[in-house]
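Risk register update: the risk of archive-format incompatibility is retired. Evidence:
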Amino acid sequence: MNHWIKSRNNQILLVTCVLMSMLLMRLFFLTVIQGGTWAEAAKSLSVKKLYTVAPRGQIYDRYGRVLAGNKPSFTVHFSAGELSDEEINQEALQLIGILEENGEVYRDNFPIMMNGNGGFYYTFDRTIEEWLIAQGMPTTFTAEQAFNEIRRRNSIDEGMNEYEAQAQLQTVYNVYPPISVKNMEFLETLELNSFLDRYYLKHDLSAEETFYALREKCKIDPSISDSQARKILMIRNELAAQGYRRYIPATIAKDVADRTIITIEERSSDLLGVDVVAESVRYYPNENTASHLIGYLGQISESEKESYMEKGYSLSDMVGKDGIEKKYEEDLKGVDGVKSVEVNVHGEQTRVINDTKTEKGKDVYLTIDLDIQKTAENALEQALLAIQRGGSFQSKWGNYKYGTAYPNANVGAVVALDLKTGNVLAMASYPDFNPNLFATGISKEDWQSLQGKNLRDPLSPVPLFNVAARTAVQPGSTFKLVTATAALESGLDPQRKLRDGGYIALGKSTYGCLLWNRYKRTHGLVNLYEAIEVSCNYYFYDLVSNKDYTKGTSLGLDRSMGIEKIMEYAQQYGLGLPTGIEISETVASVPTAEGKMKNTKRSLHNILFSRAELYFTKETISNKELLNTYIDEIVSWTEENPTYSETLKRMKKMGLKEEMQDTVAQLCKFDYYNMATFTTGDELIISIGQGENSYTPLQMANYIATLGNKGVLNQVSVVKGVEGTGTVEKASGTKMNVTDDSIFDDMIEGMRRVAVGSQGSARAVFSNFPVSVAAKTGTAERGGKINPPDEVEYIKKYLPRISSRLQWSDVEKEMYRLMDEYPDLYQTKNYAVRQAVMLLSDGKVTEERIDAYKADYDNFAWFVCLAPVEDPQIAISVLLFQGGSGGYAAPIAREIIAQYMGLNQTYTDYDLSTKITQ
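Archived output:
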């Protein structure tokens, strides 16, 4: 025995056995002898975590004035804690009762609603139906059918894959259908599936089946009515949405009144899972001002849930959805505070276990000047409203009368840049919105008020859309300065005079100045300065062609002068390229031969597909795969451009009706094949800013800033700095490839004459203005007709004038026949009704005839300028949709220059060093 004890291993084993015996005896004493006592004590205590949402970082203008701040508020939280299902259900009903009694708005994200007949429906399904109806599509459409319809409406090449089509819809046409092309499902459908997955329910359950399944899962008393049960499920859903972090309290109501707080505190012993916490709510003191730049907040959607929760967010958090709020979300979001406390059965705090304080989010400082921003927005709105009625722009700098009214001038944008740095001084789009609507969750009514009124009209006002950064359109004559740059670099003498010959004839087309087209007059002999002043198209036709068309001789410029060189300089000016701004922007490439070929082929494909019933045999169109094969084959000949006789010969094998083979051959050959490559006519119109050109107001402002900056292209920025991380560092500006900076002086001289010259198009605005301005106006032609919200109603109304031989009853019957027999071709009444009219008239009624009674789009108005001429400091671009003529936009720029140069109040540049370099 003594030998055994002397062993070191045996000694350790003996000590371990003794200690284990003591622990087991103590455990027996606590759990068996004193078990009842300790169980009662444990029941009387529980640990609660109290969360305090960190204040969001504020957003300031360049002088430290608040653009987005926070205001104190009280929020109601609900935490399941150690509560049983029965206790959660009881407290949920009591809480909702208190909130309703006090008229509070509470969070209701439970996606099952009850209709008046006692039935149930998913809110996700209703949202899809409402969107389809607003789009004029059948509510039975699948996501794929809806996406294909949107593609067709915007002439997206059917040969593109879904991802390419989606990118083009967003970047070129500013269309964002609520569809995931990855899954080819409506986003709302994905949200519904995610909701069902949360409770491990099958995706094919009806709303009613899901509702009763959740009643059972949550152990809701059968005696409770369905309407009351829904209120319980509303809170249970908020708790369940936290996923594996269900210990985090769910936000039920924000910004509650004092009487609600008092009531909850008085009934705290009955509401153990309810807390009222003080927190901050986003507040935008200037309301609509800079709304497109700042952006807005929104709740985390199901599709965003996973990524945000990985970053430590609670699903009740509000996050940035657009603009700076979205771009700098992780900087603006602070660190929430957590206090762990013990409370007894009466809800009284017994002790604090730990307390982690909140950390405020970082402040973001923008480059914009609040005063200039307000000036830009007010001037933009005033101008558009005055243009709509043919009124006057009122200003201390002189009133400007709009001689012709343009009722559809209801959308516009303006951008003002610090010319030397590329920093944004102001960026405004009209119409705008109030981001305060989103601060605690936007109502359905407010959301609907921010949507477009006519979704069939791509120019219909959409308040949430940032026109300044995301709408690319033809720049009109403002582009002529690019053509001038290429010509000057090719050896053009700016003093050399060329004669305006009125018009240039190319085949059956003529190209002339507005002066010739309207009055059959010419500008006579003009040099570069005068050509810019009077905006002489003919002069710039000479330049792009390197030819004096009046004399029929060469201009003698460098042999590289031509459309390719002009496009090269367009890109050096930043056109067709990203500006580098921190928020989302649209970028459309500069015109290229490849781009025109691609666009032509896409258009031909769409026209053949849309007229399939008219052109192709019944056997062909009954087989969509065969139809597409034939159409793809016809389109593929575009690059080859066969002769007319060869085209007609090939058409005989393409499944066409015999009587339509010649019609289709002529259409393809003369309207598409011959037009698919860059022609001389293309080069002429591109040189004056028409044709394939397409740029945003933001890009145009930077282009003018680059010109005024002697060819130095700066990255555009709207963010000056972020608290604690320093000022934003930008790459050095890129110098344009020019041999002599004096060419910029030549162009600025021509622009100066636009503002004050005897024939300048902006002289009425700037002739008596105390600041020297260099400007260029532009009028961009917008082709096409304005589609009414309902094509069927339009045709029904105008059918007697479209064709006196057709009866509406016959057209309607044919419309439904087409939709029944060819659902893949005619998925909506809007397309089928047009085809019905053409078929019943044997093709004699053309699409042009059908559209004859729709309103035409009016011209877009462009105005660009820089000031002062002696030392340019500010560059501005203004775009007015259907604003008539470029001069109509000039008063807006004048107000901004006055504010920038005159400054009603002088500010010392705000010292951010203590804020953003800590």
